[in-house]
Amino acid sequence: MTQEVIDGPAWGWLAGCAFMLLVQAALMVLVAPLFTGVTAWVSAVLEGQSGLPVMGRWLDIQHQFRRPGLRSEGEGLNALFGFSAFVLGVLCCALVPVFTLTIAGFPAPGLLLVCGLLVGASVLLSLPQALQGHFSASQACIALLGDGLLLPVLVPILLLAGTHDLAAFLAGLHALSPLTDGAPYVLAGVALFVVVALGPDGRETAGAMAPLAGPDRGLWLLAADCVRLCWVTLAADMAWAASLSMPGGMPAGQWVFQCLVGAVLWVCKLGVAALLLAGARLLVLPATRRVRIRLGAVFLLGLLAWQVTWAHAPRQAQSMNDTQLTDPSPATDTTGPTS
């Protein structure tokens, strides 16, 4: 009997990766409000306050879904913005690697597409407040301007990924040390983290939810939490890709075990990110100044990471040439037998 040869990855690995993406998306949607609650609790502790529940964000979302929706005339568009942002947020939850990468040949998006979806979701989250027509809409317009300029500012970071998809790009970073060859990508991860750290604070978030009530308000809150968690996870993946599992070259049981280890490491990274975000919330800055610092920091860190990467490229090429010179391939004897 002849064994059938399948072109590309095995169907078992394809089904396993698809199942892991569904589990990952559901896990991130459940963890996103908890991460926001932990960040708010740590920020309250640093400010000397107490009594703020860690599950407060989840309780608020559940309370909003139980309330009746109060839509006045012309406010159906605000609900559509919140629902569209939630759809993009859930899609990004499935696209951003959390505890494992996908196998070669599995459809994977590029870093530009993921960042574009996250920026688009952030813009949709700011539109309800921007369309109010009141004085508070100025803060939303400032946030829209910052989000609109964010994607062009991220160009140096996007150039680091080249034309590879996100899974292949992170697989190339898997073996790099964060202290040596992977240092430029740590800077890129810090730049992505600045997007979240200097984003809209709680007061601006409360203003953006002003036109929404009931389930529309709860869906807006859940969408904002998912987008924030995706930014944090993407930054952690750029800074330390070694925590992600590599499928394909191992038994399925070992891969599942590495996925569990990756999930534990992801929770640890979220704890560090919550502490850093809580410290950033202590900086009281006007909205316009925070947008300028946000864009400037992301641009400078991304440009620095890009320059350091190009500085390492000639050294890597020279080392490859030196290796070829010191270890040449054996020459083929073309001379015939002597008479």
TrEMBL record:
Protein name according to UniProt: Uncharacterized protein
Transmembrane segments: 12-32, 80-104, 110-128, 140-162, 182-199, 219-243, 255-283, 295-313
Region (Disordered): 319-339
Keyword terms of this UniProt record: Membrane, Transmembrane, Transmembrane helix
Signal peptide: none
Record bears the keyword Repressor: no
Keyword ATP-binding attached: no
Lineage: Bacteria, Pseudomonadati, Pseudomonadota, Alphaproteobacteria, Acetobacterales
